[in-house]
Fold this sequence. Notes:
CATH class of chain C: Alpha Beta
Helix content of chain B: 25-40%
Low-confidence stretches of chain C: none
Strand order of the largest sheet of chain C: 1-3-2-4-6-5-10-11-9-7-8
Shape of chain B: flat
Largest sheet of chain B: 2 strands, antiparallel
Strand content of chain C: 5-15%
Mean pLDDT of chain B: 89
Structural class of chain B: mainly alpha
Distance between the termini of chain C: 25 Å
CATH topology of chain C: Amidase signature (AS) enzymes
Strand content of chain B: 5-15%
Structural class of chain C: alpha/beta
Low-confidence stretches of chain B: none
Distance between the termini of chain B: 43 Å
Order of helices and strands of chain B: HHHEE
Order of helices and strands of chain C: HHHEHEHEHEHEEHEHEHHHHEHHEEH
Largest sheet of chain C: 11 strands, mixed
Strand order of the largest sheet of chain B: 1-2
Shape of chain C: globular
Number of strands of chain C: 11
Radius of gyration of chain C: 21 Å
CATH superfamily of chain C: Amidase signature (AS) domain
Radius of gyration of chain B: 23 Å
Number of domains of chain C: 1
Oligomer: heterotrimer
Bound molecules: magnesium ion, zinc ion
Helix content of chain C: 25-40%
Number of strands of chain B: 2
CATH architecture of chain C: Alpha-Beta Complex
Amino acid sequence: MALEAVIGLECHIQVATRTKMFCGCPAEFGAAPNSNVCPVCLGLPGALPVANRAAVDAALRLGLALGCEIREESVFARKNYFYPDMPKNYQITQYDRPMCEGGALPVALAAGSRGFPLIRIHVEEDTGKSFHPERHGDRRISRVDFNRAGVPLLELVTQPAFRDPAECAAFLTALRRLVRWLGISDGEMEKGHLRCDANVSLRPAGQSELGTKTEIKNLNSIRGVERGVTAEIARQNLARLSGERIEQATLLYDADHDRLAVMRSKEHAHDYRYFPEPDLPRLRVEAAWRDEARAALPELPWTRAARLEREYAVPAYDAQVLGERRELCDYFEDCARGADGKLASNWIMTEVLRMTNERGWSIDDWARRVPPDRLREFLARVSARDIPGPLAKQVFTWLADEEGGVAELLDRHRVRVQASRDDLLPLVREVLNQNPGPVAQYRGGKIATLGFLVGQVMKKSAGQAVPQVVQDLLKAELGGQRPPS
Amino acid sequence: MAIHREELIRIAELARLEVPEEDRDAMCRQLSEVLEFAESLRRLDLEGCEPSVFAPADSPLRDDRPDARRLDAARATAGAPESEDGFFLVPPIVENLEP
Amino acid sequence: MSARESWRYSAARLSNEVRRGAVTAMEAVESGWEGPAREWEARVHAVAHHDAAARAAGSRAAVKGPLAGVPVLVKDNLCTTDYPTTCASRILAGWRSPYDATVIERLRRAGAVVTGKGNMDEFAMGSSTEFSCYGPTRNPYDLTRVPGGSSGGPAAAVAYGLCPVALGSDTGGSVRQPAAFCGVFGLKPTYGRLSRYGLVAFGSSLDQVGIFARHAGDVALLFETLGGADPCDATTRRTAAPDVSGWDRGVAGLTFGWPANLWAEGVEREIIEGLEDAAARLERAGARRVTFDFMPGEFAVATYYLVATAEASSNLARFDGVRYGFRHDDSSDLRALYTRTRTGGFGPEVKRRILLGTYVLSAGYYDAYYLTAQRARTRIRREYDQAFEKCDFMLLPAAPTLPFRLGEKTEDPLAMYLSDIFTIGANLAGTPGLTVPVGMTPEGLPRAVQLLGREDGEPELLRAGRAIEVGGEPARLGRETEREFAWPSKR
Ligand SMILES: [Mg+2]
Ligand SMILES: [Zn+2]
């Protein structure tokens, strides 16, 4: 009997606000322990929460981007359980009336684009951080830091719509792109900006009801999600084969050892005693706020990728890569407008991304150094075959590191591009004289030999010749015709 | 409805409280009495009564601006039973893993 | 009268004297300690924490403002930086808040001095101030009787003369019932009119900071000083608090409800006499009585003990021995840390209510109890709305009995809960209530009534309270007339 996996994801997105969800403490990282805290996020007696508009707005924008139904009045609820990194021993979250419901995230897969349906998105607060137990005198202790406690999170829950781990990974990649695109989160999984739990169950292929599911926690990278889910599918398959029943369980994925650990079953007999948070009024998102947010949404990545393909005649792959980041798209469009789209995308996808990566620059850093008009001039010169290929990469580096237009840069570096017939003809003749063999081959019909001859001329010119011009000259000399002037 | 001993132990565990053996019967009796009293609500006609909304609805959200309530680590941990280097110390937090 | 006798003054008069320099703030604050407290405090035990140095420091800054130099005892569940804040619980033993509650900030800004922290039932759970880790407070009019609760300390202190005004909190009657037992005014404002920021939560949707005073005018003065929106409390209202400056305008033209069905049985004779007396005074002052039946209080009590305990079970989860307060010595693992700390740190009534609230919210019971109670609450609110279509305020008892004896109800939680039968409804409805003293019984126990108003009905309540205070004599209305307070005599 063929079994198929059914996977659902629960993602937590840390919202990049200035302050926390319910208090005015900085929501930044790297501060000394317990120094970004106040009575509210420390859960001191008497302190009360007040919700951060910016975090709610982030949820609204994400919900609108994904086509969710936005509830005009949603309700904060308390989720009660004891844990030392949770200051109040309850988490303020949303329960039966979340802010966003439904919607779907379009994901580009090898087989084409597919929308993965969502159940809900809601706003909640993060917990603090506890550290691995350590020796302390004659006993063991854990340390707790509440700097992260109260940082706003968006919880996004998908339908159990995934059939394999690769789909999960593609979904997360698309989600990460979207939250960055919308400016909601930095989306760096290794920094915990985006965290993911997965629900996994198996069922006979074609059956509609779900099998017993297990929940994997701690999936802290896209690769981790892929591997953790893969491991769990294998584990459940094996258990089935050996006739075991799958028990509902919570598992922790240990990325260092690529291993799943089962949490004790007693611990997941939870009774969270949810009830509406009495310290907060209902969360009202009036139609006016919603409509304003909708109108202010940027063109979304999947729409934009399709438009890039269409308008700039770039291949789908390029559109995907450029569409990874909004700034990159913006830059590309600014450069490609009125230029050769494919040429622009080639240079941006390879050289711009390589150099920004190597130097740790953002796209905005790059765009400040090489504003679109400078890059456009460069592309025009390349396109007009004014700059020889090997030299182009060099010029590109100068463009990034120095001021001035292309001509100025060539001057400054004392590069004289040998583009004229008069400059190059002596070199061409020299090469023809020194290579009677290949010349004979070419004349005998082996056209490919021309490439070799071009290469020889380029070498002699120390890379300063324009290959197209060389080729034209060679053809003319070999064929006895005058090259076009 | 009456609360029995097993029920009492279950909710005490949830609440992280311990009811000593000798007090359990009395506690069950007292809680049951209040719950029985609460049964009187069944006599109330609740037709068309939605669950109450708590807070007044006119309270706006907070602007995303830092405020002056922040404490430094020394003040944050000043009242703690045990702290060190700005951290709160607690018994070891072990993830409940099976070997 | 000399500065030494200034403890007898109303807050309004005292601050006047301080502002014009006749009495220094220090004298104003210390007169209660040097006079009546010497005589009473050891026997009444109204104060949980005090500190002469903190008072002196507070007094130095207190020369300006509408409450200049006025000493205020505040219940021990209001966070203050200069005294411990413990909610009379072992679990917070010695804890000092790093911040002031918003109402405390506003008191200080108005020139008032926090003269100490008032004793209370642990975490405000109780109606007699017997459930305090510091021992009970006694009623200054009869030391064998309770002062009411849970704000028994502040009520008793105002009655015996430590300070002219005090702050308590009222979740189900915890200001109005002790005010009645101690013969002082006690206001529970409209929910959302006084900030709860820094008030240690019991039942968040019911809690309000309340005001004790010996005179109606002082209640108005404090309400003006403390009321209004607080950006730190999302449950405060943004609109301006009602204007109570007309508290001495009298009640001509107002109507008061007389829901006599409520005291047809189970209410002591002296209480009913107090009601008749108050009604007569109101009528003498020009108010009109409307008689109608009102929903019996049992429904409110039942609803309250489901809602309040549910919220409390969650609010009190934060007391776990990690970040502040008491931690049990034997806390080798996390489970033990929590369970031993909480079992050792909380008293019996608190544990009882946490258990009840946990049960009410737990899987399988939520709908039957919590949700039903929240629906009943909507129904109760409607009853109040309808009543206030027929009258401007209602007159009814603050408690069914005169102050009861110590120990009388500590072993019978339900009987204790039923002593709040007339006060609880207003917390569920979010509407204001004012306890007004009306003379003494022949045995010398205070008699009082309760006025319940519509949302933001504080102005009418205070006008009526003032009319009752001056015996219903319109001619005696006015700010300047001070009734001499019925001070307790030595017993
Ligand atoms: Mg969550
Ligand atoms: Zn904070």
